[in-house]
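Priority: medium. Attachment 1 of 2:
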């Protein structure tokens, strides 16, 4: 079953591309993906960057996507709990502006790319060196685009297909990747449309559609550290 995909901004500025995937911006650049833990509370939200011990006051310049998507989180007993989320996002630290006591500064959240309440594989995992990764359920499938190849994985045989030199094409609100060899043809369309995995609860800023040898698949997509 395809994850729900509410309408989102279709600005293509944050889409990965072959031309921009060959270099990475400085870690504090607004173009670099920031990773960390967000704590949402009724009074103030905070952001703790991965690898740091201090919280930053979160200034949300999105449409409140985190609160909207995760405000109903429950604990093991079914009671409301303060959501703690691992996120990947665009934003900038503001250390020169005054912050309330207990905060080491501020963080302006500009766009949420990925968010999950499951923190077990979050900051402990290194940034992924792909351009984009997509996956879906029922049936399970995944596709990963790197500078070298488009790799398809699925539960049935063949369980993995790797095709070198994928071709990229940009369109308004979307980017597509295509690769083919003598046995298989893979097409992957990534759209600027919010997507929620209804099995894991993960939030993605992008939705995905795929074709493997003409068979259609749907799912969600996540951009990697090689985005810019």
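Attachment 2 of 2:
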């Amino acid at each position: 079953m395809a994850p729900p995909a509410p309408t989102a901004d279709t600005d293509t500025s944050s889409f990965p591309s072959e031309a921009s995937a060959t270099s990475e911006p400085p870690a504090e650049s607004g173009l670099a993906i920031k990773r960390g833990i967000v704590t949402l509370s009724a009074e103030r939200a905070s952001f703790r960057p991965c690898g740091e011990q201090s919280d930053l006051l979160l200034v949300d310049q999105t449409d409140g996507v985190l609160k909207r998507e995760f405000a109903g989180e429950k604990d093991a007993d079914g009671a409301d709990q303060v959501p703690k989320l691992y996120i990947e996002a665009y934003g900038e630290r503001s250390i020169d502006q005054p912050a309330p006591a207990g905060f080491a500064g501020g963080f302006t959240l500009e766009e949420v790319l990925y968010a999950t309440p499951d923190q077990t594989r979050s900051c402990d995992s290194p940034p992924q060196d792909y351009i984009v990764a997509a996956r879906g359920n029922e049936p399970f499938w995944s596709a990963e685009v790197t500078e070298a190849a488009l790799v398809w994985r699925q539960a049935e045989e063949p369980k993995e297909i790797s095709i070198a030199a994928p071709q990229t094409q940009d369109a308004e609100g979307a980017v597509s990747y295509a690769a083919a060899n003598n046995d298989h043809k893979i097409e992957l369309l990534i759209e600027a449309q919010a997507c929620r995995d209804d099995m894991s609860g993960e939030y993605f800023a992008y939705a995905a559609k795929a074709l493997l040898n003409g068979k259609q698949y749907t799912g969600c997509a996540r951009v990697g550290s090689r985005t810019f």
